[in-house]
Amino acid sequence: MTELTDELMQVTDVKTKPVPTLPDAATVLEVHHWNDRLFSFKVERPQTLRFRSGEFVMIGLMNDPDPKTGKQKPLLRAYSIASPSWEEHLEFYSIKVPDGPLTSRLQHIEPGDQIILRPKPVGTLVVDALLPGKRLWFFATGTGIAPFASLMREPEVYEKYDEVILMHTCREVSELEYGRQLVEHIKSDEILSEIEQGKLRYYPTTTREEFHHMGRVTDNLSSGKVFEDLGIAPMNPETDRGMVCGNLAFNKDIMAILDGFGLREGANSEPKEYVVEKAFVD
Ligand code: A2P
């Protein structure tokens, strides 16, 4: 075996012995493919990384070498951390865009591989950015459920609210599966169900495939259908708080609806009745 092959073996044989070849490297622990367009993965949590449930970090891979200089640069995107702040590992939920610069490659990661993880969490979808209230709503489309996957497992959420409602809309039933399984797990797991205290309500809908509940989050809110279906009072700025994460058009439309209910957009520096973050990778 030549020296070069020896060296390659050392770098590629990451399954048995990870070699830190990247800056801010985090080793992949698990990958789950939900369908041909969605996957989630867990990585080792850097020991010094602290974050608030609902925040995001920059993650990515090294880009291909520049054809002229041969130099490689990191290719990074913002990803919500989908695991709660107390969890030992970090979890992410991602789409696979066939020609997307990052996700076309990231979708092929396997346990033992390394990704880049910049350990600087930030974001507005945090409990502290809202005024106290009684009901907390999570409004998500597609992979916008990721920050709520974190918050749904956060004890502080259930300490501060009497009821937590997750509205999640996707085109097709298979795209709801990540959220459905997570809610089921929270309700059946001994520790998580104690955290959740029976307060979490789940309202999934599809828009392009037959399902028991259908329609966009926005339409079901403005028509009042969700209040009827769940047997609850309409939104009220005194009691209701919201967190929004979806595509840009969704965010804009739902903000208009929440404004119509008398809720105001807040931020870390100025807590109000709702906060918004866009689902980043598209
Ligand atoms: P629809 O099928 O009616 O477009 P996407 O995959 O395009 O990101 O969409 C994810 C989900 O979000 C789909 O169910 C889609 O519904 C819905 N959606 C897209 N745009 C909006 C919007 N402006 N308001 C509400 N829901 C939206």
TrEMBL record:
> Which cofactor does this sequence's record say it needs?
FAD
Signal peptide, first to last residue: none
Keywords of the record, alphabetical order, are: FAD, Flavoprotein, NADP, Nucleotide-binding, Oxidoreductase
What are the recorded Gene Ontology BP terms? cellular response to oxidative stress; heme catabolic process
Pfam family for this entry, one: NAD_binding_1
The enzyme's E.C. designation = 1.18.1.2
Origin, by domain of life?
Bacteria
Q: Which GO-annotated molecular functions does the record name?
A: ferredoxin-NADP+ reductase activity; nucleotide binding
Q: Sorted alphabetically, which Gene3D superfamilies does this protein's record hold?
A: Nucleotide-binding domain of ferredoxin-NADP reductase (FNR) module (3.40.50.80), Translation factors (2.40.30.10)
Annotated catalysed reactions: 2 reduced [2Fe-2S]-[ferredoxin] + NADP(+) + H(+) = 2 oxidized [2Fe-2S]-[ferredoxin] + NADPH
Q: Which InterPro entries match?
A: Cbr1-like_FAD-bd_dom (IPR008333), FAD-bd_FR_type (IPR017927), FNR_bac (IPR033892), FNR_nucleotide-bd (IPR039261), FNR_type-1 (IPR051930), OxRdtase_FAD/NAD-bd (IPR001433), Riboflavin_synthase-like_b-brl (IPR017938)
FAD-binding FR-type domain location: 21-128
Q: What class of enzyme is it?
A: oxidoreductase
- Name the protein family: Belongs to the ferredoxin--NADP reductase type 1 family.
Q: What is this protein called?
A: ferredoxin--NADP(+) reductase
Q: Which organism is it from?
A: Celeribacter ethanolicus
